Amino acid sequence: MRHLAEAVTISEQKKFALAIVLIEIFCVIIHGCVADYDNDTDLPDNAARYPMWQDINVMIFVGFGFLMTFLRTYQFSAVGYTFVIGAISFQLYPIWEAIWKCAFDLDSPFKIHYNTLTLMTSSFCAGAILITFGGIIGKVSCFQMAVCTFFETIGFTLNERISINMGVADIGGSMVIHTYGAVFGLILAKILIPRSAFCHKKAESNYFSDLTSFIGTIFLYMYWPSFNAGPATPGSQAQNRAYINTMLSLSASCMVAFLISLLTRSEDKKFNMIDIQNATLAGGVAMGTCANMNILPVWAILIGALAGVVSTLGFSKLQSFLESKIGLHDTCGIMNLHCMPGILGGIWGAIAASKASSRGDNAAQLLEVYPKSSLSDWSQSKQGGIQVAFLFITIGIAFGSALFTGFMMKLLGNTPTQLFEDGESYHIPRIRFEDPEEIINKIP
Amino acid sequence: MRHLAEAVTISEQKKFALAIVLIEIFCVIIHGCVADYDNDTDLPDNAARYPMWQDINVMIFVGFGFLMTFLRTYQFSAVGYTFVIGAISFQLYPIWEAIWKCAFDLDSPFKIHYNTLTLMTSSFCAGAILITFGGIIGKVSCFQMAVCTFFETIGFTLNERISINMGVADIGGSMVIHTYGAVFGLILAKILIPRSAFCHKKAESNYFSDLTSFIGTIFLYMYWPSFNAGPATPGSQAQNRAYINTMLSLSASCMVAFLISLLTRSEDKKFNMIDIQNATLAGGVAMGTCANMNILPVWAILIGALAGVVSTLGFSKLQSFLESKIGLHDTCGIMNLHCMPGILGGIWGAIAASKASSRGDNAAQLLEVYPKSSLSDWSQSKQGGIQVAFLFITIGIAFGSALFTGFMMKLLGNTPTQLFEDGESYHIPRIRFEDPEEIINKIP
Amino acid sequence: MRHLAEAVTISEQKKFALAIVLIEIFCVIIHGCVADYDNDTDLPDNAARYPMWQDINVMIFVGFGFLMTFLRTYQFSAVGYTFVIGAISFQLYPIWEAIWKCAFDLDSPFKIHYNTLTLMTSSFCAGAILITFGGIIGKVSCFQMAVCTFFETIGFTLNERISINMGVADIGGSMVIHTYGAVFGLILAKILIPRSAFCHKKAESNYFSDLTSFIGTIFLYMYWPSFNAGPATPGSQAQNRAYINTMLSLSASCMVAFLISLLTRSEDKKFNMIDIQNATLAGGVAMGTCANMNILPVWAILIGALAGVVSTLGFSKLQSFLESKIGLHDTCGIMNLHCMPGILGGIWGAIAASKASSRGDNAAQLLEVYPKSSLSDWSQSKQGGIQVAFLFITIGIAFGSALFTGFMMKLLGNTPTQLFEDGESYHIPRIRFEDPEEIINKIP
Known about the structure:
The structure is a homotrimer. By secondary structure, chain A is an all-alpha fold. Chain A contains 15 helices and 2 strands. Chain A has a two-stranded parallel ribbon.
């Protein structure tokens, strides 16, 4: 029995190696045929975007990576897989993005033109995949994650292309990134995860891993204004609003997460690090659609506060309910941090869009936020309708592409033998501290 | 007795929850009435300030937060309270800033106009409060910190408004931020801290917590040039000088801190991590007033080196003296890192200002540093006098506002039952390593 | 015997203190005589370089510092010495740079004019020294590192000055930084390191130190595009290419390092954290010379992938071979991460340069990359020859200056009594977890 299990394990690693080889060959061929630098880019704008891309990049690799290190025996995997998934999506995203662009507009040539905006949207794509990863981390093999990354980039770029063609306003991706990634991950969690994962004794933190996880939290918190303002035209008023709204929304969700954590963690009426690590960030997710809109600072605070309430209640109440009643095991709580606040963000975006010009933005300022506002038949209420429609499209595409991806992951790969355990795929150093009980048990 | 203690503890958490609710309602009402985006901001300058604000933001949340994690059983609280205090001050600062502006100039409308400079000065305000926190961390309840945050933002903004009206040059806040925050914290430490805190066995580091604390040190060190150059006009020569002076000053204080640590830690003639974590940064504090002045690079090195000497001697000699003789328990040594170098910085600023134009700055360059230099009766020596006067004003306002705040903290709140212990307010994971002696004690 | 050992230890610390005093006096005198702010700098360019310098600075202090914390009982030293070595080189670099500039052009005045480019090149110099440090960390005393820093800055600036005079294209320093620093460090490792270091039981990681090391990896990875694009003219197409090429190269070396780690770590067919922490970065090193050249994105991917293969094979196979057969103990594997990928980078740079204009760069774009391309007798093939010649010059100067420096380190200093042990020079907190076996051994 044990022998068989090891055979399966080795096999997953070999498949992962093969997947990497195939993906890299695919990327090299496509890049060789169609990729070049963007020689027509507006160079000052391009350079101005660079520091914001770097901030977003920190959110992806440090933020998401370390946030997931709360799993005390899965810290190497959390940062390691974040690293390699991010690297893969940097090469795959521009390819699928270019393919869909061609597919939707057959006159457009199949070309990848690299500039800093390409790097930024590649980071966004990596973000969506890492959100998905948050739902299934510790419960799928490295090979299964590679399969997921390959197919999810296809779905992500399709959905993003539709949003561009529809003229959707979603600057920080409440819908495109958070809702898509989270719905995708929740579907995978539902269809892939074995019962043995539930209440697993290793699916928990220790004092050290809670602190390293907080490194992720704090870098996500700090740089979220760049996430929501990054795609805006550098130096525009819309960009300034995106900074301000996001920061205010985050500060409100941070305060509220501390508050609700204290009130609803019934066991001991103390702050729970799970809430502090995650729900504090809900304001950034919820501001992803309307960050650059003229919504007034007070609404940024209120939206952030409400997202903080919903998210903290999700972590303290909903998560265990879903696990026991629906059979949904969501490792990092992406339902609470990304799905619900993301959908709320989409709804608020629709409401704000339908009242867009009421505060006196001029035509140029409107155009910066709503790419279709220069059309003659554009109206605020129509934009609101587009936003709502796209929210449903996002959920639909996420649903469909996740079902297909989950099927492929099940067909091609195998669930790991040991859940939430680095030793499954990583060489572990001789000295490890995850369980002093091991030492205590040796005491006669 | 134990029951009573627990009752008190719970009560502090409830009071904290109430405080958060009241502060958030207050912030929402004021923001709803008077806050808007700054539609008249110079957008290119506004965008140019953004990356520097982000650097400063990292200093606040990662720098201060992790620097204080050296307390081996108070790491959650160090980063958690830093987080929520920072969030609160982001909403409170703009309110009080706008109120004092109105109060000092009754013709000026009561308006909050958000731009990146607002975010930057909010971060500075959070910095001052976190310096204060450094003096009392581990020894006050979460509710007491909320009370402190509320009142200290009032005093901070008053002092800052006076500095603006007086035309004080204090770009990186040797006086406004470091001296104010540190004097405030030392007063609170003196009047609030019980004898039981002295020589407390948990007020110490372990190997792991010393390393996480160093994460804070190094981010503070790296981004300090942004702290001292942030408010300067983007692209000005004064900004260039602020980068250079701060970096040189820091490199000198870093070298000197290693040197003096070796020479004065009499017990073992080895580097002491307390000095390395803290005194290395004294050059940044001491350069806070004169960073943008035309002082010549060599003076930046000399000022940094002297600040490093003073600060390291403070940690290795003065701190235990203050604790045993004056009864002042200063957890993080804010006397040594912020108070003394801050006052030195204020004095050096006064000296440099009184010799301002001697190196041939033209009128525009002078105006960038000294906002009143365009007035006909302005002179260098007058500016020097203003700087000295404001140093005393800062200490006076810090003294007065801290006495009042300390009184309120004592009246409304209670000292924690367990000092330097996360378990007081945070849910602690089952596995914790703070004391292998616990395991050793179990060995028969 | 034990008494003698302690006497030696103390003596190294005293010599370190003396070295710091002498270096600081030297720096103050030279700065006092010749240093000023660069009043003629192009201020917008200067400000535009600042965020990229900050990224590079993070790579130096967080990246290199934390990467080396994998040594489980040498973490304080890894971050501490990185810190002080960085600080020293910030003051020494501008001095030697100015001296060599004068020496090579006697008409040029001996002046240090500080701007952000000075800070950036100082960071690069610190980078080279820290690469060297990676080869000898844990095996030399603090005083020996100070000696090394002093002499290596001289050799580094000489080599850099030659590269400028020759018109070498080496924007991210595959040759000037990585090859120079690595060859220097390998020579020192060969001539200084005692046999007792080989297979030392403390020259290894634990679970915690592997994770803190990964903090270094990830910050190096994220900010490497700034490292390779930093010296480019802000907003130029060459800068855009440098971002893109570096990011693509890194993502390829990351994927390949995971792949080869799995295939070549024969013992368990699992990912090895040493490869993940280091070889993933080889793409950044290898792109150091040709990052800003018009090489096409697909070549960036291919170069990164090849560098990843070479580097991972270096870690998994070559390193133990060198240790056992050649007697070369290379603590961090600088042969694999810096020397081989750096030399490859130099070679690829030469090849790319010899084909420079073939993709239609205009004269201005060529001049941005090749400073001598405006000369009438310049040709692509000539540039290729210059590049190859300089690669040999770099290795030669590194060889010679390292031999001299190693001789001085041996003459003046002493090998530490305890290798890979913080307790040698740092005060260690009472609680330390490096070896639970100590506890287990106490169990009767």
